[in-house]
Prior knowledge:
There is one protein chain. Helix 1 runs antiparallel to helix 8, helix 2 runs antiparallel to helix 3 and helix 3 packs antiparallel against helix 8. The two termini are 50 Å apart. The chain is elongated, with a radius of gyration of 26 Å. Helix content is 82%, strand content 0%.
Amino acid sequence: MTAPTVEDVARIVSIGDPVVRNLNITQGYYELSQAMSKYTDGNPNWCTFAVWASKQAGQSIRKEDLSRTFENLFHNSPEITLLLNTISQHSDVIKNLPEVKAVSSFIIKFINPDSAFEHSAWAVAEGNKKYLQRSAESSHVFFLSLKAKKISLMKIFQSSAQLSNLAIRRTDNKC
């Protein structure tokens, strides 16, 4: 599998629908992860974790996580239940409603937390888009330099670790 090209990334970030764009971004991270794994001897890399992060971002973009959490906390809140029960004791309108959840659903619509969730979803979508652009551009340069030298990233890390160990031994001997 090859990493997304600069043109692929430009196409992805120009997608207007943030949900569809996020799906493409997540796929792009997966492709970057697979391409990077060739240089890490199959070990996970930062792109591997970016796939997970982008999937989580997708839940925020679709407003699944915030809405679900808010509604669960709201409906299961002892304070809200107590408040609704107190109000229902003093209001003929609420006494005639079939259940407290109907009232709490009405209150949620009145409070309109979705406007905050919309803003949050937009911010996550924009961040996800910008991060893919920067990641793909950096990765593209990185892949080109590794391909030109035909070097395994693991060999670079191993060499770096060996040099670090030598440096540590030298400073240990000086102490």
